Every structure is written in structure tokens, then in C-alpha cells.
Amino acid sequence: MFMFILNFAYVEAEESCDGLGVLVYEDLGCQAVKRPGKKCPVKGTKYALNEKIDQDVTYESCNVGCFCNRHLDATRFTCAILDCPEWLGVPVKFGCFRKYEVDKCCSVGMNCPSDDNPLEDCDVGGKKYKEGEKFFPKDTCMKCVCSKNFNGKLESPFCKRLSCGVQINHAEELHNRCAPTYVKPYGESLCCPDTWVCPTSSDKVTKINPEAEADSVGVPSSR
């Protein structure tokens, strides 16, 4: 007589698992344990597959209609194409200029100054901006919009720190542990990255200053 001893095991399945194709494991006495499904993180909040993000979270970084999607072995966001009037070459009326809001990506209309509709000026760094114009102060990572009662201080409600939207636009690079790189003229602030450098199997790591590296991790250096 032969005796078989079955070890009861657990089979991991994601929350989105349909429960099919498990009969053989049930016959073996296995029990499926569902684990949390893969999600897309944005600013501390995790979104489930196919879950949409509120537009208020993404619009300032020029993304709309975004939802969590699976791509190969990772998750990322898929977004709609945003068409701003200024990107499409929509002409501006003579004597007018585009009007912006600090938390919006696209222009929200036009300002047309006249004797009946005088507009405020904002003097920043020796340059004047008309009411509704956006500007990016030097040596900051701020986006500002000239508005009434602007007091010269780069603070809310006139200014806001730039949002690069890297978790939405560069989820694949983050998943592959790529490093942000900047291509800027000397003296310009490093805000949002211009491109990314991703690791390859042929990469070599060179220690520029081993003693400084040892000090940074609390390892005594040989001096």
C-alpha cells in the first residue's frame, strides 16, 4: 500500500484574479490567498488598475483623463492628449495676450487692455508683466501669474512650485531605476529633468572620492 502525504500550500493571486484555472490546485488541497493588486502611486496616493485620477491632481502638469494601467510587469498612467490653444497655434487678437491661472496648464482666455479695461502690471526682476501673464522667476522653480494686488512676494496665490508630474509622465523610468539628468546653461536652476539615464548591464561605477563616500556612511577611512 502506498501513502501520499499532501502539504497544504497557499497560491498567491492578485485581487483582480478571476479564480479560473485553479482546479488542479484545489485538488491538491491548496488555498488561494489574494494579495493586493498592483497600483499606480501619485503624491502619496495609490490608484488601482483602471482607476481614474481627479483632474485637479494632474492638470497643472498638463495631464488629463489619466487612469492606472498595466504595462508589461509594471504599472503606469495612460492619459488623454491635451490640446492647449497656444499649442495649436490659435491666433491672439491684436492688442491682446493670453491669460493664465497659476494652477492651470493651458491659457484660460485673453486679456485685452483698454481705457475702459486697464490692467495691473507686475514688476519682477526689472521686467514688467501684464495682469494674467505667466512668468518663471529666475533662480527658483516657481510658476507665477501676474494678478491684482501682487506684492512682489513669490507666494500663494500668485505663485506655485512647479510640478514635473514624473510619476505620471515617467513611471517607466522610475520603475527601471533611471536617474534624472539636466541639460541647462550654466547658472540656470535645475527644476524638472530634461531627460533620464537608465542603467545597463555594461555600466561601470567609478568612485570619485572613496574617502568622502566612507565618511558619508560612517566607515572610518584610512588616512
End-to-end Cα distance, whole Å, is 74 Å
The percent range for helix content is 10-25%
Give the neighbour order of strands across the main sheet.
Answer: 11-12-13
Q: Roughly how many Å is the radius of gyration?
A: 27 Å
Protein name: VWFC domain-containing protein
InterPro entries: VWF_dom
Question: What does this protein look like?
Answer:
There is one protein chain. This protein is an alpha+beta fold. Among the domains are: 7-37, no CATH class; 38-82; 98-161, no CATH class. It contains 5 helices and 15 strands. The protein has helices spanning 23-27, 55-58, 166-169, 171-175, 210-216; strands spanning 10-14, 31-35, 39-42, 45-48, 64-71, 74-80, 97-99, 109-111, 121-124, 127-130, 134-135, 142-145, 159-161, 179-181, 195-197. Strands 11-12-13 form a 3-stranded antiparallel β-sheet, with no helix packed on it. A two-stranded parallel ribbon has the order 1-2. The chain is extended, with a radius of gyration of 27 Å. It starts with 9 loop residues before the first strand and ends in a 7-residue tail after the last helix. 11% of the residues are buried. The model is unreliable at 1-13 and 216-223 (pLDDT under 50). This is VWFC domain-containing protein. Residues 120-199 form the VWFC domain.
